[in-house]
Design goal:
about 100 residues; mainly beta; four-stranded antiparallel sheet
Length: about 100
């Protein structure tokens, strides 16, 4: 199965330390810019569905605004509960000024 690239943002859409929510193919995603590196994870907390883009970003960790679960944006892994399941991570490609995810 071949993956397809989906344009999700331009590099100037997000400042360093900024997060943005989007819907792509009926999936809620969160694009994150950390020092010019772009990460894309599911925007839905695996605990009770909180919107991760509305949480706090500290280093490479995002904290859900609802109950404080923390995830590593590079791996999707849970850093601290109450979430027990990782969030989905998307492979990101930057080509010129465009940010793409592979699906």
């Amino acid at each position: 199965m071949t993956s397809k690239l989906i344009h999700v943002a331009d590099v100037d859409d997000l400042k360093d330390g900024e997060m943005k929510a989007l819907e792509v193919d009926d999936e809620q995603i969160c694009i994150i810019n950390i020092k010019g590196n772009y990460y894309v994870i599911s925007n839905v907390c695996t605990h009770e569905g909180g919107p991760l883009n509305e949480g706090m970003l500290e280093g490479y960790e995002v904290e859900c605004p609802w109950h404080g679960a923390r995830f590593d944006v590079r791996t999707g892994k849970v850093i601290s509960p109450p979430a027990e399941e990782s969030v989905k991570v998307y492979k990101v490609r930057v080509d010129g000024n465009k940010v793409f995810i592979e699906k």
